[in-house]
Amino acid sequence: PPTPVRCSRVSLHDPSMFRQLAVGTSLGLRSALSRDRIGFVRGMATQSQQDLIVIGGGPGGYVAAIKAGQLGMKTMCVESRGKLGGTCLNVGCIPSKALLNATHLYHDAKEKFAGYGIKVEGVSVDLDAMMKNKEKAVTGLTSGIEGLFKKNKVEYAKGHGKVLGPNTVEVTAQDGSKQVHSAKHILIATGSEVAAPGFIKIDEETIVSSTGALALKKIPKKMIVIGGGVIGLEMGSVWSRLGSEVTVIEFTDRIAAGADGEIAKTFQRVLEKQHMKFHLKTKVTGVNKNSNGTVSVTAEGAFTGTLDADVVLVSVGRKPNTTNLGLKEAGIKVDDRGRVEVNDHFQTSLPSVYAIGDVIRGPMLAHKAEEEGIAAVEYLHSKGGHVNYKAIPSVIYTHPEVAWVGLTEEELTQQGIKFKVGKFPFKANSRARTNDDAEGIVKFLSDATTDRILGAHIMGPM
Predict the structure, then answer these.
(1) What is the pLDDT of residue 23?
(2) What is the mean pLDDT of residues 43-58?
(3) What DSSP letter does each residue of 167-220 carry, written as one string?
(4) Which residues sit opposite 404 in a β-bridge?
(5) Is 40 exposed, middle or buried (0-12, 13-18, 19+ CB in 10 A)?
(6) How confident is the model at residue 28 (pLDDT cuts 50, 70, 90)?
(7) pLDDT digits (tens, 9 = 90+) for 64-94
(8) pTM for the complete prediction?
(9) Residues ≥6 apart with Cβ < 8 Å to 196
(10) Would you give the distance in Å from CA 185 to the centre of its chain?
């Protein structure tokens, strides 16, 4: 097809423009036309002008779109999944919490009810019903976002969004049809995708990412989790409670990267009491399927050898999802980790294009993306908008749960900041002891001179 052309000085409502286009290059239009505004491509429809087009319907994208609608901006949100909510609502935060809650209740019924004087016989797991309950939660929340879009007059375009230029987005629907939409501003909020070493081939059946771990058809006898971060520990806890023998292999010398060191060590001891096993300072060197359906994991380091499992969960991190977004062609710069480069106002190297969430620097957290989405839209609307990155919390929804905000002891020591430590154990808390759920600690770090709180850390029951 011919190269799309853009006209920055001629109105679509001006009949003379069409006459000029008809005569083509003889009028020298190739040098006069830019790629800034309106697209004409064979078989491609061109739609009306928007104030803002958001590419990505995850937590950052849909929150930004709704905020823009509330501020009176004519807004479109483009999402390729076919369902709003992104990874978080569809195959991340929400379904994992549904399984964490269900398996916690099962574990209590099986292990603790008798101690409370509640006799329950024949407690068992109906995995299909548990998965249906998870999907019910997901469907309810994703459809709820569509309702919010309608309420706030946000147009929802189903398809893959691609930046064609400073003010133009191409949307490719699942049937292959294309439409071009134009806007004053574009906001990239496409999130992240699973990262895995090149030698590991994820099939979402026996070698799985978090997506596959949320949809296993049967409870594995043995599971190996590669990576001791939030995803690995949460999903490892789910299947451990259901009866799997779970072993976590972590490359560094600790689990829960980012958490305070003392909290992380205490947390590991609690998980070990729950029968999870850990191999720290260990590098995975191979993951191979066996003819009997199991998977062998070879490792070296503090543990050297081979472990076999029915399922291997790969949870070593995530990477920005920028596939086929047209960034390079549009002149949008990315760093060496594939993240879109932005300034303090989320503006990319292409001034009319902005980016938020997992595709830019910072922790890959849904609530961080939401705050950035609101701030970016407020900036576009009235030059306001701000995110306090020192006050973004992190949470691991195991049992006990772990959460923190601000700096850790290690970070304060490294930065040479003098601080005081205040700690209180849940074992000294009457409610926790009464509930027979007293594993945990609360820890505050404050400035030694001013008493300003620099970090807050907690491990404890829900």
Answers:
(1) 32
(2) 84
(3) TEEEEE-TTS-EEEEEEEEEEE---EEE---TT----SSSEE-HHHHTS-SS--
(4) 394, 457
(5) middle
(6) very low
(7) 999 999 999 999 999 999 999 999 999 999 9
(8) 0.88
(9) 202, 209, 314, 316
(10) 24
